[in-house]
Each structure stands twice: as C-alpha cells, then as structure tokens.
Design brief:
Elements lengths: L5 E6 L5 E7 L4 H8 L7 H4 L2 E3 L3 E7 L6 E7 L4 E6 L7 E9 L3 E9 L8 E8 L5 E6 L6 E2 L3 E4 L5 E9 L12 E8 L4 E9 H5 L5 H8 L3 E9 L5 E12 L1 H8 L7 E13 L5 E7 L4 E4 L9 H10 L5 E6 L6 E9 L7 E9 L5 E7 L6 E7 L4 E8 L4 E8 L3
Antiparallel strand pairs: 1-2, 3-4, 4-5, 5-6, 7-8, 8-9, 9-10, 11-13, 12-13, 13-14, 14-15, 16-17, 17-18, 18-19, 18-20, 21-22, 22-23, 23-24, 25-26, 26-27
Length: 410
C-alpha cells in the first residue's frame, strides 16, 4: 500500500519480479475490501486467487456496495478481463469464489431484489477464464425441497463441475431442522447444462455405512461441509466431509447483556468422514474419524448466513481442521491431512496430524503423527513430495521459523 493506492506484484520461481499493478483511487467500498486484505483470513474473500499457469483472479465490490466485480490478471499483472454487475440490474449482488482451475472460475452469487429485502437467493455462477464470459448463472433450487449450497468442485481432467449441499423439506429451516441428506448436481460447463442430480438420504443410503458416532452426529443436527471431491485411478470418487453446527455463544451473550457488540453465535467444528462412491455415484464405503472439536465465535452478523454458506465462510476463514489433499501422479494413491488438537483429561494437550490415505491395495486407511510443539508456537502444514508433509513452526517468543519434513505412513 502506498499513498492510499494498492500495489500488487508477481514473481517467478527465482523471486524475480515479473509484473506489478497499482490500483489508483479504488471505489469507496472496494477500498474497504482492499483494506481487509491485511487480515489473516480476509484475503480468502478479497485477495488474489491463483489460476494455474495463467495468472490471478480477484473478486470484490463494483462501483457501489450492491454490485460485485471480478477481475482476471495474467502473470504480469496485466488485466485480461473484468466483469461487473450491469448498471441496469435491479438486483443487489455479492459474489464469492469457490473453486478454480485453468479453464473456469466458479462461485456463488448472493442476490436480493431490493435494499430492504431480507430474502437472499443463492446462484451458482461460472466464468470462462479465457474470455471472462459468464457461462453459467443458475439457481440450485427446485420445487420439491430446499437445497442448501455448500461448495463446488471442478472435476480434474473434465469440463464437469459438481455442486454440493444438503437438502430439506420445504417447510424445514436449514441449519435448525435436521437435513434429509446431501446432494450432488453435476454440470457440463461446455454446454452450461445440468446433466444429473444425485441425492443421498441419511436414512436410506448413508446410515447403513455410518458407525454409531456417525449416526449420532446426524441426529445431533451437525452439518457436513464437503472439502474436496476427486476421482482416483480405480474409477471411484472420494468426498471428504467435516462436520459443524451453530450454537449459542455464552460469552458473547454475556457481553451483549452488558452492552457489548460481541457475536451471539459460535461454530462447533466436529468430526470428519470420507465417502467412497463408484463410477455411477453409488455409495460403497465410509470411514468416520473422531477428533476433538473446537469452538469459534462468529463475527457479528455472520450467524445470519444460510446453513451451507456458513460452512463456506468457516472454510474460507481457515477454521476447519482439514488441511489438504495430495494425489500421486498416476492417481493410484492419495492422502488427506487434518489437524487434531488432542485434549485428554488429566494430560497435556497434543497436536496430532491425522492422515487418511488410499493404500496400494485399494483400501482407505488411517495413521497419525504427533507434531506437538512448545508453547507460543504456530504450526502450518503443506504438501510435500512422496509420502511426506512439510511442517512450518513459528516460535513467537524466539521469533524463529523452523521447516521440516514429516514422514507419513502410507
């Protein structure tokens, strides 16, 4: 940031600067969004997202707070295209990026038809990376039930995208009532058409695969955020879910009673599970992984988000424990890492890496590694070559950073 303007810079792998951009006199609300990029996690909403091999994309405000703008830059930070809510539009719009590959930028558009309207509608929106053309802008809703939008997944090596979420009866209240199950809507982005819809009922399709704790979590109205969906060399699909739900924040309520402005709602982050589907999306197997939950107080107003969008928000802010997916080059194996802050009564808390992996014999297995560090140490996990992960440890007392490879058992 310099003299009220913002400077973006890009570098090659040798850290040689290859391009830059100065955003001079940004719009009022866009300036507010840029200011928030200094926050730890706010950049998930307002920051730059890489487009593999091609550049960067960023979503933000348009000329006013009721319009959105999405801009694509090449690797030299030259603007290739920009889209903004048309001036003639009567809708009030916000766009949030969900998934990106070298061909498509996908996300969710939230729309309301007036400044005072409380009815928010959610649309799946997809842009073509090459042209900036909006190739898909459709509601996920139907007339038979309510559909909550949680995430989108671009299926690698195809022009297909999967929209994911949970479904409810028409008179249910998503996030309060127990959902009936979850759905997958598959779209062909070449034709911009929905090609299939798969619904998975808790009662008929999933409960027979859950263990007792898994069944209990659904009855306890936990929601299920889909972190990733991918296809392995065996032709099977795998979806990794992490559970969460809203709860009253006693501390926030107490502060509000004293005249404070704290949030009244917190998020309880729960367990993880991985579902295996065959090539026709038939459920084959399910593994349920218990971990010590965590609680996160929501910013004021965030509790008003829809059930699925709330999971998207928690994920974007980095509050889930899931870390990343690694696949071998031939797709025959994979591993998914998450962090568990293990708190056993009467013992010191531990930091554990949970590693879910597909072994060469085709079975999904689990291993864990203790990475507990001294106090005042922040831990960060990254993918690494082979069956390793890279662990970064920042000690705030010593002001030191330590990097090391951790060998996983798979």
């Amino acid at each position: 940031q310099a003299k009220g303007n913002y400077i973006f810079r890009s570098y090659d792998k040798k850290l040689k600067e290859i391009g830059s951009l100065i955003t001079e006199k940004p719009f009022k609300y866009e300036r507010a969004a840029l200011d928030q990029m200094d926050g730890d996690a706010a950049s998930s909403f307002y920051g730059l997202h890489p487009v593999p091999g091609k550049g960067f994309v960023r979503a933000g405000y348009g000329e006013d707070k009721d319009k959105y703008q999405i801009t694509f830059y090449d690797n030299n930070f030259k603007v290739k295209w920009s889209y903004q809510t048309p001036n003639e539009s009567k809708d009030y719009e916000t766009f949030m990026i969900s998934d990106i590959n070298e061909n498509y930028v996908t996300g969710m558009t939230m729309r309301r038809d007036g400044l005072l309207s409380r009815k928010m509608e959610y649309f799946l929106t997809v842009f073509d990376v090459a042209t900036g053309k909006k190739i898909l802008d459709t509601s996920a809703e139907n007339t038979k039930e309510q559909l909550s939008i949680s995430a989108t997944s671009l299926l690698e090596g195809t022009d297909q995208m999967v929209l994911q979420g949970e479904y409810y009866d028409l008179d249910d209240k998503p996030g309060v009532s127990k959902s009936k199950g979850f759905y997958l809507k598959i779209f062909d982005l070449k034709t911009a058409k929905e090609i299939s819809e798969k619904k998975f009922s808790w009662a008929k399709d999933i409960n027979k695969l859950f263990n007792a704790k898994g069944k209990e979590s659904i009855e306890d109205k936990y929601l299920n955020f889909p972190h990733t969906m991918f296809k392995a060399a065996n032709g099977h699909y795998y979806i990794a879910f992490e559970q969460y739900k809203k709860a009253a924040d006693a501390g926030g309520i107490a502060m509000a009673a004293l005249g404070g402005s704290a949030s009244l709602v917190k998020i309880k982050v729960g367990n993880m599970w991985v579902l295996e589907l065959d090539a026709d999306y038939k459920p084959l197997a399910l593994q349920y992984y218990e971990k010590d939950g965590s609680n996160v107080s929501l910013p004021a107003g965030a509790g008003m988000m829809g059930a699925g969008l709330l999971g998207y928000f928690v994920n974007a802010m980095g509050w889930f424990d899931y870390q990343f997916l690694q696949q071998s080059s031939d797709k025959t194996t994979f591993n998914m890492a998450y962090i568990n802050y293990d708190r056993e009564k009467g013992e010191k808390s531990k930091t554990i890496v949970g590693n879910i992996f597909l072994a060469k014999d085709g079975t999904v297995n689990f291993d864990k590694v203790d990475i507990t560090a001294p106090k005042r140490t922040s831990l960060f996990l990254y993918p690494a070559q082979g069956s390793n992960i890279m662990l970064s440890q920042y000690n705030s007392k010593e002001k030191t950073v330590e990097l090391k490879l951790v060998k996983l058992n798979y």
